[in-house]
Each structure stands twice: as structure tokens, then as C-alpha cells.
């Protein structure tokens, strides 16, 4: 069964950078779109970015455009989210996601805290 595990979160100062990773096990991701979501304290989960199977099409929330980059390494069954110029409002738990046969798969998330 497909399992997603996020890593790379942590505490970073405003203006800093982090790279989140999502490792997939149990099944290959290469035929499916992938996405990153985030959920800030007291707020609903929101989409951050998504990529098609070969990352030839990517989309970003307006709030992260120009600062975040999604990528994937299908050979390694990995998805990444490179985040630059982080802001306090980026503080959230970040989740990796994919949909297969109408079923949403989620990891447990990785916490990103942007604070001085």
C-alpha cells in the first residue's frame, strides 16, 4: 500500500529557506500527479503546489508563487518542495498528497515554523 512520509521541516528565520522531501513507499508515484498542502494553526488545509507526472505542468498558490518550487524524482520515488524567502505566514504543517483511483493519500506532515 502506498505510504507517504514527509521530512525537512524545522525552525527557520524570516527570509530563510527550507527544502521539504516526501518519500513514497509501497507503490510508485511516477504515473500520478503529486501535491503539497499545508495547514496553519486554526486554519483549514490549503493547496500549496502540484505537479504532473513529469513536472511538465506545475501550479502554485498565489501566496507562494516565485518563492516555492515543486519537483519530483520519479526514479527515487521522491517529491520535493524548495521554499525560499520564507515568511511567518508560511508557518504550518506541510503535507504531501497524491490521488489514486479516487483515494487521497496523505503523509503525517512536517512542521515548518518561520520565526525570528
Reconstruct the topology from this structure:
Layout: E1 3-7, E2 10-12, E3 18-25, E4 34-39, E5 46-51, E6 58-60, E7 68-73, E8 78-83, E9 92-100, E10 103-106, E11 110-114
Parallel strand pairs: 2-11
Antiparallel strand pairs: 1-3, 3-8, 4-5, 4-9, 5-6, 7-8, 9-10, 9-11
General description of the model:
It is a single chain. The protein is mainly β. The chain contains no helices and eleven strands. It has strands at about 5, 10, 20-25, 35-40, 45-50, 60, 70-75, 80-85, 90-100, 105, 110-115. The strands form two sheets. Strands 2, 4, 5, 6, 9, 10 and 11 form a seven-stranded mixed beta sheet that branches. The relative contact order is 0.32.
Catalogue the unreliable spans: none
Roughly how much helix do the residues carry, as a percent range?
under 10%
Q: Give the number of DSSP strands.
A: 11
Q: Which structural class should the secondary elements be placed in?
A: mainly beta
C-alpha end-to-end distance: 40 Å
Order of helices and strands: EEEEEEEEEEE
Overall radius of gyration: 13 Å
Form type: globular
Arithmetic mean pLDDT:
95
Strand content: over 45%
Biggest sheet, in brief?
A: 7 strands, mixed
Number of helices: 0
Defining traits:
116 residues; mainly beta; seven-stranded mixed β-sheet; 11 strands
Brief characterization of the structure:
With 116 residues, the chain is mainly β. Helix content is 0%, strand content 53%.
Amino acid at each position: 500500500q502506498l505510504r507517504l512520509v514527509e521530512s525537512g521541516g524545522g525552525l527557520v528565520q524570516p527570509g530563510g529557506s527550507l527544502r521539504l522531501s516526501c518519500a513514497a513507499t509501497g507503490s510508485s508515484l511516477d504515473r500520478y500527479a503529486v501535491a503539497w498542502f499545508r495547514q496553519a494553526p486554526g486554519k483549514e488545509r490549503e493547496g500549496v503546489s502540484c505537479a504532473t507526472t513529469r513536472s511538465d505542468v506545475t501550479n502554485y498558490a498565489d501566496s507562494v508563487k516565485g518563492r516555492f518550487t515543486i519537483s519530483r524524482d520519479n526514479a527515487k520515488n521522491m517529491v520535493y518542495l524548495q521554499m525560499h524567502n520564507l515568511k511567518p505566514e508560511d508557518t504550518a504543517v506541510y503535507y504531501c498528497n497524491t490521488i489514486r483511483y479516487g483515494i487521497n493519500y496523505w503523509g503525517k506532515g512536517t512542521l515548518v515554523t518561520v520565526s525570528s
